[in-house]
What does this fold into?
Amino acid sequence: GESVGLHLPTLSVQEGDNSIINCAYSNSASDYFIWYKQESGKGPQFIIDIRSNMDKRQGQRVTVLLNKTVKHLSLQIAATQPGDSAVYFCAENRGGGADGLTFGKGTHLIIQP
Amino acid sequence: SAVISQKPSRDICQRGTSLTIQCQVDSQVTMMFWYRQQPGQSLTLIATANQGSEATYESGFVIDKFPISRPNLTFSTLTVSNMSPEDSSIYLCSATGTSSYNEQFFGPGTRLTVL
It folds into this structure.
């Protein structure tokens, strides 16, 4: 299917290595952040989230770090696998309430065998 | 987690026509949203679909171009009206629960090509 990563920054990582994907957000009032994974031809899939009162959260093979001082979010994926190849988006809730999300530009992660 | 389906999955349409996209959630949710993803780009929020009332549109999107309905808690439609090639995009439906911190689940998207 058509790739959604054609115009996005690309990160190439060797299989088994760790990867770090970065995201800058702009709204100081945002209080909830989510990382999504999007494979070609599919909708975004929830990976992990973090609230603004935390600076780190861990899941299975993934860790999200939040630095509110510089408005920066990162996603760390440990021991990358071929199935991790996808486009990754950060998204922010704009400040309270069940609200629509503002998405970052996205990063195309390629896992090299 | 909620499962979201969309119809059609893709379509090719002629300039000047309209297309209605359906979104169905398998469980009751509070909020439903529509997003657009232009080729090779990120997602942009079009509007919040409100049950029984007019949708809330984001800056740059208007009801005449993107009319939205939400007759009940689990179903919504988005119409792309008077289409032009610039409307060629993936249109995605999402849903979330009652808490502001509930994750948003996304449908698979509808890939629209306008000739």
